[in-house]
């Protein structure tokens, strides 16, 4: 009896230790229970955790003290391994101990203690069965804890929501601009913020605070009565998410940057994604303004209410899309891009410049211009707004090295569209040799081969010299290059990043342009 | 609703003028639906007060009663605004009386127009209307602004300055030096006080001594300038900031004496209406060339000194050469120079809004600057032995 009780207590503690990992995962899934559970059941036990099973059997099923001790030691070993692994692979984004997480962890502990106490008083084989099951299914306590806390969480959240609404009500003239899109909504938001801040007091939701709670926190922590504009980034994982946010902050301006097949796991169909993003336009305030990116087919085809004004913008000079504003005569240089903004209907033009590079960034700038003009900013003022825009470091930022050559640093990009855009910029950038150094794109799933090969084919068109980092993982790019008959004397396959850079130093000459593309961690170098 | 703190009164010789200017502005702001006015009155004893009693100009006929009917407060940094907390703080009572989101100082002269109040507001980290610390102190100081404008290449009248404590010891030397550089008649001014307080002309040495003795009651530094005889005075106002500004029409004050004294400006028959009731000709009778030159000099000086809000720049036109000279700046002009803007076609309310907008721009420009490092240098430094 005593040994069983001690055993159950130990099991409870071990399970609770594992709960931290479970909670972390729950947080990573944005507190969405179903996708979280789906993921959890696929990973009940890691191979080394069989030690745990063995330990439980030895401890509970035998009467020999020696075997019991061995069982106990095995259990301890398992804990030690668990800790070791946690330390060896630190998460990119650590578990944040928000009040909600603390409440959840408390509830989970409560569940475990109730289970444990009950089991101790039940006949003997149940203790072992419980021990065998509770640990692999530790996420159950998170589920139950969440269930217990749900009414409380709801009440607490509602208090915060209402408080945020009260603050907004004190600012009746606040103009709310909603931004959504499958890619690039954060950079659109940043561009818009920088531009509009020249003439207005602007508040924006910080880095990826794009849920109802994120908006609530932004408002409660930062909104002042003197703010004139609130830029709200709106994220969506399920149908109705954007509508909920629109009902909450009531945007009178809406920008949809792009619609793509992101989060298909939760949306199920592409139609659902289009429908959900379109909620922003459908749920604008009466007489609102939709800022429509006509370069994106799905955005272009969204139906608008009759009372909503559409401002159509395009980063190309393709007039068949009938934009209200478009740009032409783009030139790229060491100081950034310059382009001519045209008000299509009147033919009114103005030459503008920005330190940003690449068509998608320019598209964001045009979106910002469309909003600014709609808010009554004059044409003359636009260049003040655009010329202060600069790239975030490693996102197509430029630097001159020793006044010898130029580096286009796009190391933070990881998607095919961005890679393509970076190559376009490289192509148009004034300079002698065009050099790329890249490990290729990772994390593309089953599309990885096709997309990387395509990337290789385009590299062949643009670059005078190619440095690939990692032989095995850049195979698709090599195949792409070969398909286009790329001269293998202008290709170098580096074993690691340092090797790649020493090759670069060897070949680089005055006024060359070097594109550093995609993530370059040194773990990918086989 | 934006809580706008109108700060007025102050330990300045222009205390009463400030009350009138502020009450004129308050009457307008009360009609603007965006704002809730939080009056902050600084008594002559330098204590701060708030309360609705301060919103009525008639109440100020009895200053003691004003203090009895309002709450003594201090302005302190708030969450994302500034709090008015009760002074002294009482135990077991929430000390926060009110808060302000924007400050609107309407204090003429010392303590309000010279950068010291602006320094406090800078620390409170809220937008405030009018000049920043440097611009306010530069423009308030006749010596500093003259030297600054001279080096910028903007025409000002020749002048010399000295400390009053040096005057006591080296009076003869100073007079000789002045006479060598400047012809009579001269005009003697305290360096850092507005509204013509302590200003006197001097046609000869005896008058000069008398004028300096009069002026040194008001400042520790004295400015002596060449007096432009038979000059015309022309005033113009600039509204906004270096990023976005507008200019008003010109006015020509009409007075019997050679220059406008404090009494002329405020104590005459029209004392309750402030600067707006002084005798003047609007728009001033000027040739287009002269008007344009004045406008250009005003804009250049306004930008060079980084002024903001509404500034009235006073010019003198030399009778002989016909050239305009910048005489002085009023960064919190009497009645906020609204009469000049009404004559330009801009309502008092629009002018106030333009001033508030300029304060937002200044605040945003400041916010966008990098002020601190994210990295704590001390976190890796060896701190042993720093304190001996």
What characteristics describe this protein?
heterodimer; A: 526 residues; alpha/beta; UDP-N-acetylmuramoyl-L-alanine:D-glutamate ligase; Protein-Tyrosine Phosphatase, Chain A; 3 domains; 6-stranded mixed sheet; 19 helices; globular; B: 388 residues; alpha+beta; Rossmann fold; Dna Ligase, domain 1; D-amino Acid Aminotransferase, Chain A, domain 1; 4-stranded antiparallel sheet; 11 helices; 17 strands; 33% helix
Instruction: Please describe the biggest sheet of chain A, giving its number of strands, its sense, and whether it closes into a barrel.
Output: 9 strands, mixed
The helix count of chain B comes to 11
Within CATH, the superfamily of the largest domain in chain B carries the name: ATP-grasp fold, B domain
CATH fold node name of the largest domain in chain A = UDP-N-acetylmuramoyl-L-alanine:D-glutamate ligase
What would your notes on this structure say?
The complex is a heterodimer of chains A (526) and B (388). By secondary structure, chain A is α/β, with parallel strands linked by helices. Chain A folds into three domains: 149 residues, no CATH class; 217 residues, Mur-like, catalytic domain (UDP-N-acetylmuramoyl-L-alanine:D-glutamate ligase), CATH 3.40.1190.10; 121 residues, Mur ligase, C-terminal domain (Protein-Tyrosine Phosphatase, Chain A, Alpha-Beta Complex). Chain A contains 19 helices and 15 strands. A nine-stranded mixed β-sheet of chain A has the order 2-3-1-4-5-6-7-8-9, sandwiched between helices. A six-stranded mixed β-sheet of chain A has the order 10-11-15-12-13-14, sandwiched between helices. In chain A, helix 18 links the parallel strand 13 and strand 14. In chain A, helix 7 crosses helix 9 and helix 8 crosses helix 14. Chain A is globular. The radius of gyration of chain B is 22 Å and the shape is globular. Chain B contains eleven helices and 17 strands. The model of chain B has no long low-confidence stretch (mean pLDDT 90). Chain B has 388 residues and is α+β, with helices and mostly antiparallel strands. Helix content of chain B is 33%, strand content 24%. In chain B, strand 16 and strand 17 form a beta hairpin. In chain B, the strands form four sheets. Chain B has a seven-stranded mixed β-sheet with strand order 6-5-4-3-2-1-7, with helices on both faces. Chain B folds into three domains: 127 residues, 3-Layer(aba) Sandwich (Rossmann fold), CATH 3.40.50.20; 69 residues, ATP-grasp fold, A domain (Dna Ligase, domain 1, 2-Layer Sandwich); 133 residues, D-amino Acid Aminotransferase, Chain A, domain 1 (2-Layer Sandwich), CATH 3.30.470.
């Amino acid at each position: 009896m005593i040994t069983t009780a001690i055993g159950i207590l130990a099991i409870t503690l071990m399970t609770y230790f594992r709960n931290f990992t479970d909670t972390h995962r729950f947080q990573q899934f944005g507190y969405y229970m179903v996708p979280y559970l789906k993921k959890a059941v696929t990973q009940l036990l890691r191979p080394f955790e069989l030690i745990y099973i063995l330990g439980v059997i030895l401890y509970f099923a035998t009467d020999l003290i020696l075997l019991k001790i061995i069982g106990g030691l095995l259990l301890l070993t398992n804990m030690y391994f668990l800790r070791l692994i946690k330390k060896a692979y630190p998460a990119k984004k650590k578990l944040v101990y928000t009040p909600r997480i603390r409440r959840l962890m408390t509830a989970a502990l409560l569940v475990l203690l109730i289970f444990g106490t009950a089991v101790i008083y039940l006949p003997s084989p149940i203790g072992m069965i419980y021990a065998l099951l509770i640990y692999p299914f530790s996420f159950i306590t998170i589920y139950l804890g969440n269930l217990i806390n749900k009414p409380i969480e709801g009440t607490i959240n509602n208090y915060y929501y209402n408080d945020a609404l009260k603050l907004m009500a004190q600012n009746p003239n606040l103009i709310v601009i909603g931004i959504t899109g499958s890619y690039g909504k954060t950079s659109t938001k940043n561009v818009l913020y920088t531009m509009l801040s020249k003439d207005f007091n602007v508040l924006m939701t910080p880095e990826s605070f794009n849920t109802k709670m994120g908006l609530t926190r932004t408002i409660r922590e930062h909104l002042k009565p003197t703010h004139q504009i609130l830029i709200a980034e709106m994220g969506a994982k399920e149908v109705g998410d954007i509508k909920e946010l629109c009902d909450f902050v009531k945007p009178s301006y809406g920008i949809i940057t792009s619609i793509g097949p992101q989060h298909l796991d939760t949306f199920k169909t592409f139609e659902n994604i289009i429908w959900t993003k379109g909620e922003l336009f459908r749920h604008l305030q009466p007489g609102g303004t939709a800022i429509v990116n006509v370069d994106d087919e799905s955005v272009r085809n969204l139906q608008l209410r009759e009372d909503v004004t559409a401002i159509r913008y395009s980063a190309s000079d393709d007039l068949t899309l009938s934009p209200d504003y478009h740009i032409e005569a783009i030139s790229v240089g060491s100081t950034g891009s310059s382009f001519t903004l045209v008000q299509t209907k009147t033919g009114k033009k103005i030459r503008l410049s920005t330190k940003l590079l690449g068509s998608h960034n320019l598209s964001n700038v045009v979106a910002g211009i469309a909003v600014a003009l709609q808010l009554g900013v004059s044409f003359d003022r636009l260049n003040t707004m655009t010329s202060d825009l600069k790239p975030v470091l490693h996102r197509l930022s430029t630097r001159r090295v020793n006044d010898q050559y130029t580096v286009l640093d796009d190391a933070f990009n990881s998607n095919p569209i961005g890679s393509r855009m970076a190559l376009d910029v490289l192509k148009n950038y004034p300079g002698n040799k065009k050099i790329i150094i890249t490990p290729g794109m990772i994390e593309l799933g089953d599309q990885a081969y096709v997309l990387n090969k395509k990337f290789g084919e385009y590299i062949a068109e643009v670059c005078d010299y190619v440095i690939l980092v990692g032989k095995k993982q850049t195979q698709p790019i090599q195949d792409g290059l070969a398909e286009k008959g790329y001269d293998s004397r202008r290709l170098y396959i580096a074993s690691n990043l340092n090797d790649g850079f020493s090759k670069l130093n060897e070949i680089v000459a005055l006024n060359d342009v070097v594109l550093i593309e995609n993530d370059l961690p040194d773990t990918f170098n086989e | 609703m934006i809580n706008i703190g109108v700060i007025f009164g102050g330990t300045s010789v222009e205390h009463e003028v400030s009350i009138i200017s502020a009450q004129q502005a308050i009457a307008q702001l009360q009609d603007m639906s965006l704002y809730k006015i939080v009056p902050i009155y600084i008594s002559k004893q330098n204590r701060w007060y708030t309360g609705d009693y301060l919103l009525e100009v008639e109440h100020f006929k009895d200053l003691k009663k004003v203090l009895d009917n309002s709450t003594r407060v201090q302005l302190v940094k708030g969450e994302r605004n500034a709090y008015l907390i009760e002074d002294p703080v009482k135990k077991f009572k929430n000390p926060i009386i009110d808060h302000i989101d924007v400050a609107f100082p309407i204090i003429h002269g010392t303590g309000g127009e010279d950068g010291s109040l602006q320094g406090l507001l800078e620390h409170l980290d809220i937008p405030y209307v009018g000049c920043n610390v440097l611009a306010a102190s530069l423009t308030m100081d006749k010596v500093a602004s003259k030297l600054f404008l001279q080096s910028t290449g903007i025409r000002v009248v020749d002048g010399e300055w000295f400390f009053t404590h040096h005057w006591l010891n080296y009076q003869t030397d100073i007079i000789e030096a002045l006479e060598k550089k400047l012809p009579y008649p001269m005009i003697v001014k305290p360096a850092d006080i507005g509204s013509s307080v302590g200003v006197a002309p001097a046609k000869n040495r005896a008058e000069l001594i008398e004028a300096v003795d009069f002026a040194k009651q008001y400042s520790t530094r004295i400015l002596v300038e060449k007096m432009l005889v038979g000059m015309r005075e022309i005033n113009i106002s600039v509204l906004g900031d270096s990023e976005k500004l507008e200019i008003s029409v010109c006015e020509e004050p009409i007075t019997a004496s050679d220059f406008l004294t404090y009494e002329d400006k405020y104590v005459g028959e029209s004392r309750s209406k402030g600067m707006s009731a002084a005798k003047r000709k609007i728009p001033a009778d000027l040739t287009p060339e002269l008007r344009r030159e004045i406008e250009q000099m005003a804009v250049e000086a306004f930008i060079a000194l980084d002024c903001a809000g509404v500034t009235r720049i006073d010019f003198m036109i030399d009778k002989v050469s016909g050239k305009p000279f910048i005489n002085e700046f009023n960064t919190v002009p009497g009645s906020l120079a609204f009469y000049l803007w009404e004559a330009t076609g801009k309502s008092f309310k629009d002018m106030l809004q333009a001033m508030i907008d300029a304060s937002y721009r200044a605040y945003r420009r400041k916010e966008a600057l990098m002020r601190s490092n994210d990295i704590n240098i001390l976190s890796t430094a060896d701190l042993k032995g720093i304190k001996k």
